[in-house]
Structures are given as structure tokens and as C-alpha cells.
Amino acid sequence: MALELSNRFPAPPGLADEGLQRTKRQVQHPDHLSLSDSDTDTEDDDVRETGSDSETEPNEAPQMQSRLSVQAPAHFPAKKEDSGDQTQPKTDGDLHIHSVLECGCEVMTCQFSNDGSLLAVGLCDGSIKVYSTDSGELTQTLKDSSSVLSALPVTSLRFTQSGQSHCLLLATYASGSVRCWYIWGQQCVWWLKEARDGERMQRQTLSLSISPSGHQALTGGSDSFIYLYDLATHQRRQIFGASGMKTVMDGHWLRVIAVSFHPEKETQFISGGWDNTIQFWDTRQQHSVRMISGPHVCGDALHIDPLANQILSGSWRKHNSLEVWDYDSGKKVSEVPQDTHGDSKIYTCHWFGQDHIIAAGTQANMLRVIDRRSLTTESKLFGLPSAIFSSSVCPSGQWAGLIAATSGDRVFLLSRNQHVKKHHL
């Protein structure tokens, strides 16, 4: 079903008032995204562009009881000194710690390549480490003088390919930069700094999505706008944002922390952030075409399942933190109950195959594998000393279904198959 472009929901009570809008900007937010708006890149200052109504009560099925397994994860490629953490990571159910990557710096984001052969890890110091999924070895470190000097975090990563089928990695930075890396050459093949025409102060770039064709990319950031780029020309094609009308809320008012193209619709995408809305967009329209009020998105926690045509949203809050919505109607389909082990404020969530959901975050510092039908937790990783900011699921290859979850300066690789081949240490 196509988007109905004329269907705009009115602004929620209070959001149309400009005074209340300024108050909303004081919304509580997670520490890892509370960067000063004055943070800027140290590159040349010249901006350069190269070449919600109906709710379904959650199922109250009891949580599944399973045998607890305490594991001492293996480190690779080389063992490092004990970090001194007193908390021992644990798993239960059929989830197992396959191995652990020690990255030497706090990890902000991670992403498997489309073929499942690589795992890219974005760090707080602005560098990117790329690991072989097969061997677990560090294959490349991606950084340049500018990212080293700015020393601001990598905020999102997405793999793509060039016209010559070269493996490329798009990365966004809190410095306001977007960079495209040729992985095997450790080369930044193009970059740009994000700012609107006539403005010299660039924004913090916080989120990224690539269209189904691979020809376009979206970025969201601290200025509440969404930018659309042509990946062939590296030029910005469109800026999406609210109209400013007081009678409708047709765009974001606060930071855009997640953007996601519809997996099967080149011209449609959704976005979420601090203003407690999911906005629906059509690339042929400057303003959003409709919205859902509710989710407080603070990470990579907004995804569309093309088979069921449903949206999974994760919110950084104690209650109603994980919800499923119908894409076409915007109605809530279900609400996932919190785990009995503790409440989680969600930073990251994903569809996991056709039957499961993955969700993780802070407070309980836990990752859960949730049955999509019963909404019960089947297995989990817990006992971590710090929050899980990011996660990724290996999409294909011999490691399909392997889960990467970041916590502190480590990436946990998790398997639900006890017979998966171990990495050679």
C-alpha cells in the first residue's frame, strides 16, 4: 500500500507552542549522545560536498525459564590484560558467547557487511576497526588526520558497493562529517561536511541509512533535519524537515537519532529521535507525510520488517520501551513486556529472522532475544558493567545469525548454535 501523502496527523498537544518547544529541548537524553553543539571538525571550515491511536495490550505470558550458563569469553586475536571489571558476563537460554573483541576504546557502533564476511566497529576516538568474521582478526583500521585531530565519535556505519563492486563503508561522525572508505585500500575516497546552504556551523551527524537500490543515502543529525545524498555523485539532493506550521507536526523538532529506508520502497523512509515521534517521509515531499507519537528513540532502534510490513521501535525509557507498529496504519500492534531480570532503556533493537527480536540498552545492561509471537525472552546476555550502545546481526554467509553487541571497549559475538565453529586463537 502506498503512502497517503495528504494524511498528516495534527501536532500532539503542546508541541505547536514555540515556548513549549524550547522546554522540550531539555528532554533527558543518554550520555553517549550528549555532545556539545559547539563540537566541530578540524577540517577546512569551508563546507565541501565532493564530486498512534490504537494500542494492543502486550501478551502476559510468563518468561521462559532456562538453564544459566556462565562463560569466560575468549579474546582474539591476542589476549589482553584484565580490564579489572568485577562483573562476569553471563548468558542463559540458547545464547552463547562465541568470542569477544577487545577494541581498546569505547565502541559506539558496529555493523556487519552485507555478505557477512566483515564486522566494522566505530570507536569513540573517531577511528574504525574492521574485523574478519571468519578468523576474528583485525584486518584494517580506518582513520585519517582529520578524524584523529577531531577525536569525536563515529556515530553510524553502513556497508555499500561501488560501481566496480568494491566493498565500501559509509561512516558518520559527531564532528559533522560523512566519509566513504575503501576498506582494502584503507583510503577515504570521498568526504563531506554537513551544513545547510549559507550556514558555516555544521551539525553533528548521528544516523545513516542506505536505500534498497544502494544509490541513495540518508543522514540525520542534531539540527532536526534529514539529508538525502546521491551516492554516485556524492551530492546532496534534498533536505527534509518540518514546515514550521503550528497546526501540524510534519517533521522533527529535536535531534534525529535514527533513519531507515523502507527495505522495498526506494522513495519511502521513517525517522525517530528525541521529540517522541516516528515520522514517515516520501523523498518527493519536503515535509513528513504522517507520524506516530510516542517512541523516544536514542540509538539504532527503528527498523522495518518488509514481510509483515511492521515497524520495530526501541525507546530510551523505563516503560513501553519496545513496541511494534503497523507501517500502513501507524497503529500499535504489540508492546513487549520488560524482562524479569530488570528494566532496560533501549539503545538498539533489530528484527532477528522472522520469529524473533533483539533488543539491548542500559540500566539492566542486557541484550535479549525475544520470541516475536509470545513476546517472552528466550535468551539473553547480561552481567555487563556498561550499557550496550549498538548491535548488529550477520545477514548472510556461514556466520549468518551471529550477533554483535557492543559494551564499553568490547564487542561480544553471540551465537544461538552450540555447534558453530570456534575461531582459532
UniProtKB/TrEMBL annotation:
Anaphase-promoting complex subunit 4-like WD40 domain sequence ranges: 104-155
InterPro entries found in the cross-reference section: Apc4-like_WD40_dom, WD40/YVTN_repeat-like_dom_sf, WD40_repeat_dom_sf, WD40_rpt
Xref: Gene3D superfamilies: YVTN repeat-like/Quinoprotein amine dehydrogenase
Keyword Lyase: no
Sequence ranges of Acidic residues compositional bias: 38-58
Pfam families registered for this protein in UniProt: ANAPC4_WD40, WD40
Record region (Disordered): 1-93
Keyword tRNA processing attached: no
Residue stretches of each WD repeat: 249-291
Keywords tagged on the record: WD repeat
UniProt-recorded name of the protein: Anaphase-promoting complex subunit 4-like WD40 domain-containing protein
Organism: Pygocentrus nattereri (Red-bellied piranha)
